[in-house]
Amino acid sequence: MGFNCGIVGLPNVGKSTLFNALTQSAAAEAMNYPFCTIDPNIGKAKIVDTRLYKLAQIANSAKIIPTHMEVVDIAGLVKGASKGEGLGNQFLGHIRNTDAILHIVRCFKNDDVTHIAGAVDPIRDIEIVETELMLADLESLRKRESLVAKKANPEAVTERRRIQELIDWLERGQLLNQLDQLDYADDERTFLNSLHLITSKPVLYICNVGESEVLSGNVYSKAVENFAYGRKFPIVIVSAAIESEIALIQDNSEQMEYIRSLGLDLSGLARIASEGYNLLNLITFFTIGPPEARAWTVRKGAKAPGAAGIIHSDFERGFICAETISYDDYVGYDGEFGAKSAGKMRLEGKEYVVRDGDVFHFRFNV
User: Fold this and answer.
1) What residues contact 118, with CB distance under 8 A and at least 6 apart?
2) C or N: which end of the chain has fewer Cβ atoms within 10 Å?
3) What is the average per-residue pLDDT within 179-193?
């Protein structure tokens, strides 16, 4: 289990450049003109977790398999997209089934890169994109309401009432991911999730700044930070140009050396992944041995059998127990043997709740 996210933003904000860097590909054409992305691009971004490489080093693992996130890049949205302006409206369906939205915001000045609105103004840009997403959701809800209105059973009456509440919320200019301000019951949230509405998804703002501003940000990224704070949305400051350079370095240790030479602790991708995990309540566990070291993603609150099932359904069905070592103990005692010798390996049963960084060996019988 990883997670998938859709990239949105105005044209010429660095979406395609960042997509190519994240997925280490050249799938998305990145040019200095609007709508250079025509078809939606889908790729996988490797999530670099430094813990995995440390564990692999200790276990002398022959193969390292990180977890991934799927990324969907669509054409840049413009004002009027929901009414057919530009191209982005044709592809919004491709991000309806994603887990989260990465909203790329232009926070750099560059006379050589055209801004579709003429000048850099990140808050205006955010509001343009979000308005179009809200209008797209309104259109979807109104279509569904017209279908439900033809039915007279109690379930249809309840559904129509819920749809109208969502329409009212959007018409007030509120994103559906801000519905936590309302006292929504679990069944209402389940209904909302079933609609796959774009503005109901959690959002991460990604401020694309110049290479020299990636450490301190700038006046534009500060404006986005203040705007996001009011909504309790996270932000990450990256330079798509730097991420492109990092993506060209294949060796992980050389990558980290280059990242540190820039004064950074982590790449932009690593910071995006970390915030994405927080947004979606995800954590990582590991399976480590001489053949391979592998990272796995699971929801917070998942129990050991559920984690085993992510590896293989047989592991969950025949779950007996999980040999468990925390990441700190695995590293601190120089591997599995040392942790076992120090009494730091635990046998956890079906009710054990997975903790971030757990190193598992599952026992099962099918």
Assistant:
1) none
2) C
3) 75
What type of residue sits at position 80?
A: G
Taking alpha carbons only, the member of 93, 129, 103 closest to residue 14 is 103
* pLDDT tens sequence across 344-355: 999 999 999 999
Contacts of residue 226, Cβ cutoff 8 Å, sequence gap at least 6: none
For residues 89 and 26, what is the distance between their CA atoms, to the nearest angstrom?
A: 23
Percent of the chain with pLDDT over 70: 89
Q: Which of 7, 50, 23, 4 is nearest to 284 (CA)?
A: 50
- pTM summary value: 0.86
What's the confidence (pLDDT) of residue 36?
45
* Geometric angle at alpha carbon 94, from 90 and 98, rounded to 5°: 145
Long-range Cβ contacts of 120-128 (<8 Å, 24+ apart)? 120/220, 122/207, 122/220, 122/221, 122/223, 122/224, 122/227, 123/223, 123/224, 123/227, 125/9, 125/10, 125/13, 126/205, 126/224, 126/227, 128/10, 128/77, 128/78, 128/79
Nearest to 270, CA basis, from 69, 49, 51: 49
Tell me the C-alpha to C-alpha distance, in Å, between residue 286 and each of 2, 102, 105, 172, 190. Answer: 13, 26, 34, 45, 31
CA distances, 181 to each of 19, 157, 158, 198, 201 (Å): 33, 24, 21, 18, 15
Residue 298: what pLDDT?
95
The token pair that represents 283 in the structure block? 């954590």
